[in-house]
Amino acid sequence: MNGIISKTRRFIKKYMEKLDDISHDYAHINYVIRFSLKIAKREGIRDKKELFYIKMGALLHDYEDSKYSDKCQAEMINEYLKKHKELTSYDRLEIVKIASNISLSKESIDDDNNDDRTEIKMDIVKDADRINSLGSVGIMRYISYNINNNEKPSFDEIISNMKKRTDKIRKLLKTKSGKKMAKKHLKLIDTFISNYEYFGRKRRR
Questions:
Q1: Residues 6+ positions from 28 with CB-CB distance below 8 Å
Q2: 37-74 residue pLDDT tens
Q3: CA nearest neighbour of 32 among 103, 97, 91, 90
Q4: What is the pTM assigned to this prediction?
Q5: Structurally, how many domains does the chain consist of?
Q6: Phi, psi of 124 (to 5 degrees)
Q7: Residue 55 belongs to a domain with what CATH number?
Q8: Which of 29, 86, 171, 199 has the maximal Cβ count within 10 Å?
């Protein structure tokens, strides 16, 4: 399975470079992989196959995402995985389900948690992805994404988007370990937002 991961790393690195968006680059993918494996370890996941699914899900979670593509993400991920003949249909199903359901836009605050094993692996990758939207790295990602995707970006718009997404992330973190890991990152981004709102109001007077 290490060969598949290595090939997928190379494939995704090239794909992310083509997006030309530093808020969603290969460094972000690596952050999500690292956080996912850390959370998985703390949540007691030791099975190599399950860790493989988590790692592949993290690697592929931004491939053909709706932010950058009109294609069906799940179908495109499955087509890519079919190139690896050693993967079974079950392997592909597990990876696709994880990778294609990470985006914050695909989830409602009212969604129920359950103990399904695939759901647990998905929750781990979701938490890892969301933690990377917090803290100092998260702040830089919000700023770069808004500048790249708005004709007339403004600080107020960036802060408004940051605040809304942070509030949503706070409510949607899934795992005990993810929530614990997110605390210091939430504290930093909350302080940044409060600081801007206080001095921003003074600047506009």
A1: 16, 62, 132, 141
A2: 999 999 999 999 999 999 999 999 999 987 888 899 99
A3: 103
A4: 0.88
A5: 1
A6: -60, -45
A7: 1.10.3210.50
A8: 29
